[in-house]
Write a structure and sequence with these properties.
- The complex is a heterodimer of chains A (119) and B (862).
- Helices cover 61% and strands 13% of the residues of chain A.
- Chain A is of the alpha+beta class.
- Chain A has a single domain, classed as Winged helix-like DNA-binding domain superfamily/Winged helix DNA-binding domain (Arc Repressor Mutant, subunit A).
- In chain B, the strands form 3 sheets. Chain B has a 6-stranded mixed beta barrel with strand order 3-4-9-6-8-7. Chain B has a 6-stranded mixed barrel with strand order 14-15-20-17-19-18.
- In chain B, helix 12 packs parallel to helix 15.
- Chain B has 4 domains: 55 residues, no CATH class; 205 residues, no CATH class; 309 residues, no CATH class; 193 residues, no CATH class.
- Helix content of chain B is 53%, strand content 16%.
- In chain B, a hairpin with a 4-residue loop joins strand 1 and strand 2.
- Chain B is an alpha+beta fold and 862 residues long.
- The chains are: A alpha+beta (119), B alpha+beta (862).
- At the A-B interface, helix 1, helix 2, helix 3 and strand 3 of A face helix 1 and helix 3 of B.
């Protein structure tokens, strides 16, 4: 059970950000879980490695919140996989989180790099 | 989507993920084994991933509910005083409902008779003679039996038996039944057997069957009792069987003996003593059976003058066994329902008042993103939690109430032994608690729904509630008052009818009189001479007991359940048609009866020692009979006959009217009374009446041993003072009175609290207004009047609504009332006055507080 707790903690820590990343990744079309991990990894130049133990709970939670919907489809290599798609509510949520993120990151940037201080 | 399907999909989703990962790796050139291994390692613990993911599914709503509950529990703990008051109020209301439901559930449980729907009571009906559900005669019974409608038809009479046990003789209830009685009910004996056909023949009938209760109480549930002998009415009977525990007793029968028709009764169509119960023959519907026996009865009624105007009714036994209790149960269930509604209104009001105080909290939560719906649900959860707590605590009062109700031995109630706090009743308690919580929780939830967030943030700080809310609270008080009024009227009518029974001059002096009944067994005392000899001896010996002033015996004590009626005939007048015959009560009394009971002599003389079997046949009548039958004439010296074939008796005296008790009043209104000397009309069962100079109850042991010393086989029973006999009435009336009385008292208290709460709250709100008024010169009395008027206005509306409801509902009570009309204006007026007074008192306290307002502080306050 200790391991499970650890997973949970990590989810909570990452939750807000991971959610945003997932929503952002799905902005350009439906993807399955494996595809989302690959997309985040490649667009972050291999910096962000999302763990399955964080990804799947997040996907299921976002789906329940109505921000994602899912369907079973064939992959290009003719495998059956569950594809997640952004809903209208999810799009709105993405916009909100994006805005919040921008504010937050500029605020943090402001603290880390105060104006006038040579960087 | 079912959980199982989701489970499968998750599994598939993970497998698909792995397959894709392996495929990618193999495309990058890894071997299958390497790819497999790396993909799995990268994925992590498969089972754990699935488990954590599963946590994200549907349990959220349950979790949120738990969270609501935890939060609710915290709130309730924080306001402990409030919680305790509400839980106790609810415990009373729900407890009362639970208790009454346990009775209703028992009454609704089907009788333990196979195919009970096919079993019917067969009643004689005669509209002309005002007979409803009348017993049958032996020839009637034989005719019905021959009709071919019934597969078996049994007859029964109820009565008592003297059962000799090792150390004493007991008077126990019993039924005499024909063997077909048991076949009609399709009962199987627990042990032993039922009656055989030949045991209904004279000379073969010394057998008995025990009820389960008697077998346990007096025979230690000994299975080897079968075949042993027991002395019943002085005659040894062989016990042949014991009935199963589930056998539905009709009343409190404890022993069954064969019913043997004697030759006299077998020929007489006029002697109707038998209740008849039958099972319909297969393939014969109730309607078809009714039609066939009705046709048969129609033929008989034209054939025999005794049966003129007679018809017959079939009543399903299920129906027969609840009809007497139905009114009582409906009334009690209605009353407890009202009490609970009143409690709900009160609690809703309390919650509304508290809700106003919590408005700021709620507004804050809304501002923090909690939806309105979420807040409403939170409030409802709190209410349900309160109600469930109340329901749990309610178990205690309901246990007490059930014990109280079962202590009444309500004969009308069937399945009395099933009245208990069983699982069905507990489920009812749970469902009711939940529903109650939702009901009173709707008010605060509605209030929260209406809350305007930004407005509330501002308003709450000034604790001003919207007008709509105050109106809602007023409405609750109005409905509380209305419901309370209905309950009060019900209780008032019952109390009045009780008072009527007690205070009306009964026509005798009931103080210091002990009554003791003895029923001589008809085998040992078959000869009338032996009967009268027994009672004269007991009366003589009783008179010499220290403390006894005088003693007598009477066969039907006034106000008791024992009654004997006779047709009244006049030797000097033409014989009336049978349906025009007047019925009078006849009573056999020993000579000192009138003197002992202090029944005044109006004309002529009392009966006395000179009236013997061999002397002139005489009678004494009451004033009412004299006035009805010989208006304006000298009655003493006139003759009457009780039955066409009886000898004529000369009236020697007229005595004062005696209250015959509610049974007669309810059935017939006023009925005349004829007294015969016991020497000339001996009876096997009489009640001894002793007028005493001391507390009559102190003579009970002496009387018991006196009767035992005369004949050990004759037990005494119905031992009571005359005061107690008069006061008792029917058990159902007593129960209805005490329960309605306590329900009404609780309702009145709750209504008072409700009025107080609303007025106090509104005074609190208007503090500033009162301050202004008083600083502008209003006197304290003006303010007082202003506030009290508000309380009275609410009460007045409630009373008006309640009066209308009471007028409509109290006729349900009429079968339980005596000497009072269901719309008795005195009761209605009295109750209205009481409620108005309570309303004034409840609003006076807050009003008085309003007058204490210091204008300066009031104006400055918040």
């Amino acid at each position: 059970m200790a391991t499970k707790e650890r997973y949970k903690n990590r989810i909570e820590l990452l939750q807000g950000t991971l959610d945003m990343l997932i929503l952002k990744t799905l902005q350009w079309g439906p993807r399955h879980g494996y595809g989302i991990i690959q997309a985040i990894r490649s667009s972050s130049s291999d910096v962000l490695q999302v763990e399955t133990g964080s990804l799947y709970p997040a996907l299921h939670r976002l789906e329940r919140q109505g921000w994602l919907s899912s369907e079973w489809k064939q992959t290009e290599s003719n495998q059956r996989a569950k594809y997640y798609r952004l809903t209208a509510a999810g799009r709105k949520q993405l916009a909100a989180e994006h805005q919040r993120w921008t504010q937050l990151s500029s605020a943090i940037a402001g603290i880390m790099n105060p104006a006038g201080e040579p960087s | 989507m079912t959980r199982r399907r989701r489970e499968r999909e998750l599994q598939e989703e993970v497998e698909a993920h792995l397959r894709m990962a392996i495929r990618d790796r193999m495309e990058q050139g890894q071997s299958r084994e390497e790819a497999n291994y790396a993909a799995l390692a990268e994925f992590g613990n498969k089972g754990l991933v699935q488990e954590v993911t599963r946590d994200m599914w549907g349990w959220a709503s349950l979790e949120r509910l738990l969270q609501d509950f935890r939060y609710g529990a915290r709130m309730l703990r924080k306001n402990l005083g409030f919680t305790v008051v509400v839980v106790l109020t609810l415990a009373l209301g729900i407890g009362a409902n639970t208790a009454i439901y346990s009775v209703i559930q028992a009454a609704l449980t089907p009788l333990a008779i196979p195919e009970a729907g096919r079993v019917v009571m067969v009643w004689t009906e005669n509209a002309k003679r005002n007979w409803h559900q009348f017993p049958a005669s032996v020839p009637d019974y034989a005719d019905w039996k021959a009709s071919g409608v019934f597969s078996s038809l049994g007859a029964m009479t109820d009565g008592g038996f003297n059962l000799r046990l090792a150390d004493r003789t007991d008077r126990i209830n019993g039924l005499k039944v024909t063997p077909e009685f048991f076949t009609a009910l399709a009962v199987q004996p627990h042990i032993g057997r039922l009656f055989l056909t030949q045991e209904a023949q004279p000379g073969h009938s010394a057998v008995a069957i025990l009820s389960d209760a008697l077998w346990r109480s007096s025979f230690a549930a000994n299975p080897s009792i079968i075949g042993s002998s027991v002395v019943l009415d002085g005659v040894p009977h062989t016990i042949v069987g014991v009935l199963p525990k589930t056998f539905p007793q009709i009343g409190q029968e404890e022993i069954y003996a064969p019913l043997v028709f004697n030759a006299d009764a077998a020929g007489s169509r006029g002697e109707r003593f038998f209740q008849v119960v039958g099972r319909l023959r297969d393939g014969v519907s109730l309607a078809a059976a009714e039609q066939r026996v009705t046709e048969l009865e129609h033929r008989l009624s034209t054939q025999y003058t005794e049966d003129a105007g007679q018809s017959v009714a079939l009543q399903p036994i299920e129906d027969a066994s609840v009809q007497d209790a139905r009114a009582l149960l409906v009334i009690l269930f209605g009353a407890v329902g009202f009490v609970l509604l009143i409690a709900c209104a009160n609690i809703a009001n309390l919650l509304l008042a508290r809700g106003t105080a919590r408005q700021k909290e709620m507004a804050l939560r809304v501002a923090l993103g909690a939806g309105r719906w979420r807040i409403c649900r939170q409030l409802l959860t709190e209410s349900v939690l309160l109600a469930l707590l109340g329901g749990v605590v309610a178990i205690f009062p309901s246990l007490a109430a059930i014990r109280f109700i079962t202590s009444f031995h309500l004969d009308e109630l069937r399945n009395r032994d099933l009245i208990a706090l069983n699982s069905g009743v507990l489920v009812f308690n749970l469902v009711l608690s939940f529903a109650t919580g939702i009901l009173f929780g709707l008010a605060p939830a509605w209030q929260a729904w209406k809350t305007n967030v930004s407005g509330a943030m501002k308003e709450a700080s000034r604790s001003v509630a919207g007008g709509g809310q105050q109106r809602l609270r007023g409405m609750f008080v109005v409905s509380e008052v209305a419901l309370t009024l209905v309950l009060l009227v019900g209780a008032g009518l019952m109390l009045r009818s009780f008072a009527q029974m007690r205070s009306a001059n009964p026509g005798y002096d009931s103080r210091n009189v002990l009554t003791v009944r003895v029923a001589l067994s008809d085998q040992q005392y078959a000869m009338p001479e032996k009967q009268i000899a027994f009672f004269e001896r007991v009366v003589r010996e009783a008179r010499s007991l220290p403390g006894v002033v005088s003693a007598a015996a009477v066969d039907d004590l006034p106000a008791s359940d024992n009654l004997h009626g006779s047709g009244l005939f006049f030797p000097d007048r033409p014989e009336p048609r049978s349906e025009d015959v007047k019925v009078v009560l006849r009573d056999s009394v020993t000579s000192a009866y009138f003197a002992t009971m202090h029944i005044p002599l109006i004309r002529g003389r009392y009966l006395n020692e000179t009236d013997r079997q061999s002397s002139a046949q005489v009678a004494v009548i009451d004033e009412w009979t004299a006035r009805q039958n010989w208006p304006g004439q000298e009655v003493v010296g006139k003759s009457l006959k009780l039955g066409t074939k009886q000898t004529a008796r000369q009236i020697v005296g007229v005595v004062g009217d005696v209250d015959q008790g509610i049974l007669v009043k309810l059935l017939k209104g006023q009925v005349g009374q004829v007294y015969l000397p016991a020497t000339q009309a001996p009876m096997p069962a009489m009640t001894l009446v002793l007028r005493t100079a001391v507390d009559p109850t102190t003579l009970i042991p002496a009387m018991r041993s006196l009767v035992r010393s005369v004949d050990i086989d004759q037990p005494v029973f119905q031992v009571a003072t005359m005061d107690a006999t008069r006061a008792t009435g029917r058990a159902s009336q007593q129960l209805a009175t005490s329960l309605l009385g306590s329900f009404a008292a609780v309702a009145l208290l709750l209504a008072a609290i409700g009025i107080y709460g609303v007025i106090a709250y509104s005074v609190g709100q208007r503090t500033r207004e009162f301050g202004i008024r008083m600083s502008l010169g209003a006197r304290r009395l003006d303010v007082l009047r202003l506030v009290v008027r508000q309380g009275l206005l609410l009460a007045a509306i409630g009373i008006a609504v309640g009066l209308a409801g009471a007028f409509a509902l109290t006729r349900l009570l009429s079968s339980l009332l005596y000497g009072v009309n269901a719309t008795d204006p005195v009761t209605f007026a009295g109750v209205t006055g009481l409620l108005a007074a309570v309303a004034v008192a409840a609003s006076f306290l807050p009003a008085w507080r309003a007058t204490r307002v210091d204008p300066v502080i009031a104006l400055r306050c918040d």
